[in-house]
Backbone:
């Protein structure tokens, strides 16, 4: 057998074998999308509400470790999570019979939420999910969304979200905003059970980084 001239002139080099293999992805729960070892499904409630909650999530939030919008949608029977930037079916979602649609988004024109009266149609509460910049982009790309009557939280509680710096005073995570809105509109009903997986998620992240690192980076 003859080697090609090119190969004959090539110097021999020892083969290098690497014993390091790519780390296999951890198996995740198909429902809560958390690692199976940290599945939150046992903590997710099954709550009913008169208010219909439609969460419109920017795609950049889907892979975030602290995806609270998904937890909110899983814990409410009358909730729906849609992911995207341009929502072609938005007009159909907003025209759901028996509801009056409004957008939970702060602003000078936003009206503070009040308890729903017996003679009023229940709300279809549309909640954009993303950073403030991404949420504003959703409104810009979806004129029907921007045209909705806006509502805001009259008295926002202190956020329990200890891993992200709030962009401004009174800012809440998506799941906290949904809980606060529902407890205002449907008072005296409680939706605190929605926060159980959220609290566990935060505690788990802090435990994973270590108390010292958490205190150094977040001032806890």
Residues:
């Amino acid at each position: 057998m003859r080697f090609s001239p090119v190969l004959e002139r090539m110097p021999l080099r020892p083969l290098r074998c690497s014993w390091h293999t790519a780390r296999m992805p951890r198996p995740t729960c198909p429902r809560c999308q958390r690692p199976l070892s940290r599945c939150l499904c046992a903590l997710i409630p099954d709550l009913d509400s008169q208010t219909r909650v439609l969460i419109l999530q920017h795609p950049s939030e889907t892979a975030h470790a602290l995806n609270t919008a998904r937890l909110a949608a899983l814990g409410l029977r009358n909730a729906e999570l849609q992911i995207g930037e341009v929502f072609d079916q938005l007009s159909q979602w907003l025209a759901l019979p028996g509801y009056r649609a409004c957008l939970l988004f702060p602003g000078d024109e936003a009206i503070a939420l009040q308890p729903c009266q017996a003679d009023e149609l229940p709300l279809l509460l549309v909640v954009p999910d993303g950073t403030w910049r991404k949420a504003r982009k959703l409104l810009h790309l979806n004129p029907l969304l921007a045209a909705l009557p806006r509502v805001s939280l009259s008295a926002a509680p202190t956020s329990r979200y200890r891993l992200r710096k709030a962009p401004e005073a009174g800012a809440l995570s998506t799941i906290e905003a949904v809980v606060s809105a529902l407890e205002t509109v449907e008072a005296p009903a409680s939706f605190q059970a929605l926060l159980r997986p959220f609290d566990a998620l935060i505690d788990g992240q802090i435990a994973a980084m270590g108390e010292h690192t958490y205190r150094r980076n977040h001032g806890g």
